Each structure stands twice: as C-alpha cells, then as structure tokens.
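Thread: fe (ii) ion complex, take 2
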Amino acid sequence: MRILFCGDVVGRAGRKVLLQRLPELRSALRLDAVLVNGENAAGGFGITPALCQEFYAAGADLITTGNHVFDQRELVGYSDRDPRLIRPLNMLPGTPGRGSAQVALPDGRRLLVLQVIGRLFMGSYDDPFRALEGELARYPLGASVQAIVVDLHAEATSEKMALGHLADGRASLVAGTHTHVPTADAQILPGGTAFVTDIGMTGDYDSVIGMSKAIAVQRFRTHVPGPRNTPALGDATLCAMFLETDDATGLARRIAPVRLGGRLPPAWPEEA
Ligand SMILES: [Fe+2]
Ligand SMILES: [Fe+2]
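Output below.
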C-alpha cells in the first residue's frame, strides 16, 4: 500500500499548499491513501467541518487531530458524525469523537489509522502506551487490515521513540506530529515498523512553529499576555511522509520524507 501522511496543517498558508499540491501528489506518488493532521488548520486552532470537507475534496481520506481538536466548538458535535475524522484515543472517557478509523480502498484493502497523545509536557491524558497496545491487540496487522498507521501526537522525543518501539512489528508506520518541526530520523525499526519522531508541519517556516514570529517572541519575553497569536502567512512547505508497505505482512518497505514549497529544502522519495 502507498500512503502519504501530511504533518499538522497550520492556518491559511498551510491549507493553500496542501490544497494546491495534493491532487498532483496523489497521482505522482500513485497513492492509495492520504492522511492529514488538521489540528491547526483553522487559524492555528482546531479545524472546522467546512475545512474537513475541503481536505476530503482535495484528496485526503482521513484527518487526524490532537490536543487542539475541540478549539473550534462546532467540532464537538461534528466529531461524532464524521467517520473520517479522529482524535487521540487516550482522551478521557466521555470525550466526543473516535480514536481510530479505517480507510477502505476500492480494491478491498483496508488501512487502520489511530492516534494517541503523549503526556510529557502535554496534559492529563490516559496512558498512551496502554491505549496503543490495546488497539493494536484488537487489530493484528495483516488480518482484517492490511496496514496500520499511528499518529503519535506528543511533545517529547523520548516518549515518541518509546511508543514507536512498543508498536514495532505491530504497525506499518508510527509517525510523530505536534511539534511542527520535522526530524531527520525516518527509519524502519528492527521489527519492520516505519518510524519518524515528527513529520513536521505543513505551514510557513518563517515563523515560530507556524505562528507569527513577532507575537511569539514578544510573548516569550515578558509576563504580559500579548495579543492572540495568528498563523504566519508566507509561502508554506508541505511536509509529509511517504510510506510503502507490504500487503502480505503489513510491515514497511520504504519510508521517505516529502517536502515541497516554502523555505525548507525539497525532499522527494527516490524512484517514486
Ligand atoms: Fe499541531
Ligand atoms: Fe498538537
């Protein structure tokens, strides 16, 4: 299976590069499925139902979120009605929405996507290790689903690597989101699971993690709450991971960064 997973889309600049490039990426990389982290799509804070529909129309199959999932209040009711939108599995019981969902390919193959959120520097969530293990136990790789992608929404690189090793051999890809900075450690772990600590954001990198640098710097320098931060509006980089899996085992054959546009050096899979 050939899968593209786009990192956190931040604001208008991130949406623009995603909507412009996704249709051509789908055909150039012969993608079977496209996943997008949309937790910062609406002005940097959450995503709206209308933006979800725009992403689907551009070629996204499933949207993951994160700690910002309910920043736009309309998403509270909507998250139960949209089967292609997920939020972290280990949010507290009673939280609306779902923590995993499947993408059904036209040829019958199925992809399971789930998201867990870390706890280091993140807040009071249930144990992500137990949540991840529980969901992977319900869906043995290669049985009812041919591929499994885990969105690891966490701040600390250590917690992300530990969760990656926990899933090794039981998922196709474990990919970090949330820090908005791409890491250079994309690899296939010994058990056959592809891993990257963070995909990086789809947004303007002349910023502080996608938001206006002037406001962000000012907010760090004093105790006076500054104006509400807004996304940076320059040319954005589309940051994603390309994954190719073996349909028989569900394990990874290849992981490679895809980076297009904006300020970051371009990246493209060899022999795409
Ligand atoms: Fe984010
Ligand atoms: Fe986040």
